[in-house]
Structure formats: structure tokens, C-alpha cells
Amino acid sequence: ISYLRQNNLQAARQKLEKALEQEPGLATAHTALGIVFEQLEDPAGAERHYRRAVDLDSSDPDSLNALAVFTCSYKQKPADALKLFDRAIAIPLSVKSANRPMLYTNAGTCAKRVDLARSEAYLRGALAQDAQFPDALFQLADVMLERGNALQARAFLERYLVRTKASPAALWLGVRIEQALNDSSAAAGYGE
């Protein structure tokens, strides 16, 4: 996993495959290997390992989250992915801990494709776990703009920008929000 974090994908793959030779039922190794295969642009290998991890330990929210993100982004099946996210969210913290804000944010980001109200609910769930979680703030700003509430979108984007460095996507969202609010001066400021 350290090799994976260092983006040394070949070494990570070798070490994880060796770990699975020694202990084939290690769900975390399957999840990590799924990430490796996904980054190596081998979606079949990624899916195989994500599914194996979930089969081995269906109470692991991180494995469910990884499979759900893959299902939403690579397979373009948000409805199936949301079922997986819901399963992960339903796992009590007393059973397995997880990065709950990230889990809810991933679900909310996926739900944006099919149901903005559901997306908003997930993203608010992320903020209930961590009121300053940057990805949730950004995604919620986008959802609020899409739902026609530019004023709330502005508030979420401002909270996001306090927490992290402005990205091109955040600046573009700021332009769109201020245009929706008919504030050409603020829109120009984001544009600059």
C-alpha cells in the first residue's frame, strides 16, 4: 500500500499479489490491488479484485466504497453504485470504521448523475460527519447551483475556498454561480 501511495504501481502490484499468494482471503489486499489495476487502466482486473474484496468481507465500508466508485465512474452504472454506497453507509462504525465524509461525498457525487435531491442528502450527510470536508463543500456548491439555489451555492463555495486552494474547477464554478446571481463584478473576479 505504501508503494501504491508513492505511485509505484508495478511494485505495489507485485507486493500485493505476493500477499495474496500467502493469504488469498485478505480483503484489504484485494481492494488495494483493485486500485492498482484501475490506475493501470485494467478495468476488468480492477473489478475482479473489488468484487472479491466485497465477497470476502461485505462489512468493510472501504471495499464497498471502492467498488461503488468504480461502478459509478468506470461502468457508468450510478443506480447500481448507489446501492453499494447505501450498503457501506449502513455499516455501523462499531463494526468497521471508515472515512465517512469521503464515503458520503462519493455517494453524493455519483448521485448527481441521476438525482440531485438525493445527491444533496448524501453531501449534507458528509458535512454532518465533518462540517469542513472540502470535497463535500465543493460538490454541494455545484449541486445547489444545479438545483437553482445560487445563493446557497455561493455560501458552500466560499466555505470551500476558505479550506483549500482554489482549483480551476472551483474558480469556474464561482464564475457560474456569480453569473446566476447577476453579479458580473464577482464573476469577473473569479475569471481573473
What can you tell me about this protein's structure?
With 192 residues, the chain is mainly alpha-helical. It is 76% helix and 0% strand. It contains twelve helices and no strands. It has helices spanning 2-5, 9-22, 27-39, 43-56, 61-73, 78-90, 100-111, 116-129, 134-146, 150-163, 168-180, 184-191. Helix 7 runs antiparallel to helix 8. The protein is elongated and about 60 Å long. The mean pLDDT is 95.
Class of secondary structure makeup:
mainly alpha
* Tertiary shape: elongated
Major sheet size, sense and barrel closure: none
Instruction: Give the number of DSSP strands.
Output: 0
Separate helix tally: 12
Q: How much beta, percentage-wise?
A: under 5%
CA radius of gyration: 19 Å
**Unreliable segments of 5+ consecutive residues:** none
**How helix-rich are the residues, as a percent range?**
over 70%
Distance between the termini: 40 Å
Query: SSE string, helix = H, strand = E?
Result: HHHHHHHHHHHH
- In terms of quaternary structure, the protein is single chain
